[in-house]
Amino acid sequence: MLDDEINLWFIESNPGPQLFGTSQDKIYYDVLVGIFDINFAYYRSRMKRVLNVISSIQKDLVNSQVVNYERYRKEYQEAVKNILEPEYQISPNNT
After folding, report:
1. How many domains, the chain?
2. Residue closest to 85 by CA, chosen among 55, 54, 40, 53
3. Rounded alpha-carbon distances, angstroms, from residue 45 to 63, 78, 79
4. Is the pLDDT score of 61 beyond 70?
5. What is the tens place of the pLDDT at every residue in 13-50?
6. 2, 3, 30, 45: least CB-packed within 10 angstroms?
């Protein structure tokens, strides 16, 4: 996760959701695939926007060596919102 100062933070790690081992394995598998599909779509959408902000900062540094960080903080806050970009829509088959 990136914060408002564009610092990278590790938030959480789960070794396994412990959903398997029952007669409903197929249902759990479909749920996990669906959850992954949703999370990955949002992640890719946010990362696309965040990388655009970072690219803009880099261009400012190269071209003028001056960066308006207040402007980029606002752009970053918009970039990390949970909005799906059209190319990363969730599968219509998601259960």
Report:
1. 1
2. 40
3. 27, 12, 9
4. yes
5. 666 656 555 556 677 778 888 888 888 888 999 999 99
6. 3
Residue 72 belongs to some domain of the structure = yes
Residue 61 sits at the vertex; the CA angle it makes with 81 and 42, to the nearest 5 degrees, is 20
Q: What's the mean pLDDT in 74-84?
A: 90
Q: How far is CA 42 from the centre of its chain?
A: 5
**Domain region containing 68:** 25-88
Rounded alpha-carbon distances, angstroms, from residue 56 to 59, 63, 65: 5, 10, 12
Is the overall model pTM greater than 0.70, yes or no?
no
DSSP-based three-state secondary structure for 2: strand
91 C-beta neighbours (distance < 10 Å), count: 11
Please list, in sequence order, all residues whose beta carbon lies within 8 angstroms of the beta carbon of residue 46, skipping any fewer than 6 positions away.
79, 80, 81, 82
Within-domain flag for 17: no
Give a yes or no: residue 80 inside a domain: yes
Report CA-CA distances (Å) from 78 to 12, 71, 88.
23, 11, 17
